[in-house]
Automatic annotation (TrEMBL):
UniProt keyword annotation of Electron transport present: no
Gene: LOC101158714
The keyword Disulfide bond appears for this protein: yes
Pfam families: Ig_2
PANTHER family in UniProt: FC RECEPTOR-LIKE PROTEIN 4 (PTHR11481:SF64), IMMUNOGLOBULIN FC RECEPTOR (PTHR11481)
Name the UniProt record assigns to this protein: Ig-like domain-containing protein
SUPFAM superfamilies: Immunoglobulin
Length: 301
């Protein structure tokens, strides 16, 4: 039977090649923003670069997309010149190469969202994620170079800070989760005894915890773990800067620790009724978080 299947595939292979059946590798293209800002004014330019993480060093051509639309541009570098508002969108790239069995493509990259702003002011958020305890820098960028005399920062429509002079950068120190929100800026300047003011559109700012509260999940599938075992899985979000210090996981039954600390977020334990929880610790950062207890089985009240 296996021989028949192989012969059938070999017989169909020329037809598959002639029909140019698409084939996709496990490689995913990576798109990188080379320019400083993903939000630009109309008339400005922007630069994206695409790379293919192929350890074999194969020769790939590059295709570019805005949303589901394939763009005429090809090659590793993509440059948006004299941008118009309609050029806004989510840009991605994909590698392609010809082989003896047809065209093989990579997976499309995770898209980068580009926004072209027709206004006069843009609030620039941080280029990387902001964590609890960080200093948040927000800069108000203005079209042209007018003599600025005042800049105001707003969060959710409420004034947060104002400063006099040419400085258009704001610094919020030791931020918390409560500092997340929609931020905007307003810039004012005087020309010929007249005052002009412009306001940017709202820009979302998200503050992340370095270590979130863990959530314990209990798996007791007999087919996977047998009748006497079950798996405890400790889910947590860990957002430390690279190189991130190691995380230690601890598991508990009725507040008593089950064995030693784990380097993985799971443990296989004896199946038994009880209240289970997990604790996550990052010793180098002096961070500890514990999950809420999860019950397994019918516990007596």
């Amino acid at each position: 039977m296996d021989t028949c299947i192989v012969l059938l595939v070999l017989a169909l292979l020329p037809q598959l090649v002639m029909c140019n059946v698409p084939m996709v590798t496990s490689f995913r293209a990576i798109v990188e923003l080379v320019s400083d800002n993903s939000r630009i004014f109309t008339g400005e330019s922007l630069h994206l670069r695409c790379s293919i993480p192929d350890i074999h060093g194969s020769n790939w051509s590059v295709e570019w997309f805005r949303g589901s639309e394939k763009l005429p541009e090809t090659g590793e570098n993509f440059k948006l010149w004299n941008a118009k508002i309609k050029a806004s969108g989510k840009f991605s790239c994909q590698g392609a190469r010809k082989t003896m069995i047809g065209i093989i493509r990579t997976l499309q990259s995770v898209p980068v969202e580009i926004e072209v702003d027709g206004g006069w002011a843009i609030l620039k958020p941080p280029s990387r994620s902001t964590l609890v305890g960080d200093t948040l820098k927000l800069s108000c960028r203005l079209r042209g170079f007018p003599p600025i005399h005042e800049t105001i920062l707003y969060k959710d429509g409420i004034e947060v800070m104002r400063q006099i002079g040419q400085n258009v950068s704001f610094y919020l120190s030791n931020v918390t989760l409560g500092d997340s929100g929609m931020y905007s800026c307003r810039v004012s300047w005087d020309v010929r005894r007249r005052t002009y003011s412009v306001t940017s559109v709202n820009t979302p700012v998200h503050i992340l915890e370095v270590l979130s509260q863990p959530l314990l999940e209990i798996h007791a599938d007999i087919k996977l773990y047998g009748a006497k075992k079950m798996k405890l899985i400790c889910h947590v979000l860990y957002n430390a800067r690279a190189p991130a210090p190691p995380v230690h996981y601890y598991f508990y039954k009725n507040n008593e620790q089950l064995g030693m600390a784990k380097s993985k977020n799971y443990d296989l334990v004896t199946k038994a009724l009880g209240q289970y929880s997990c604790r996550v610790k990052v010793p180098q950062l002096d961070l500890v978080r514990r999950s809420k207890p999860s019950s397994f089985g019918d516990l007596p009240e």
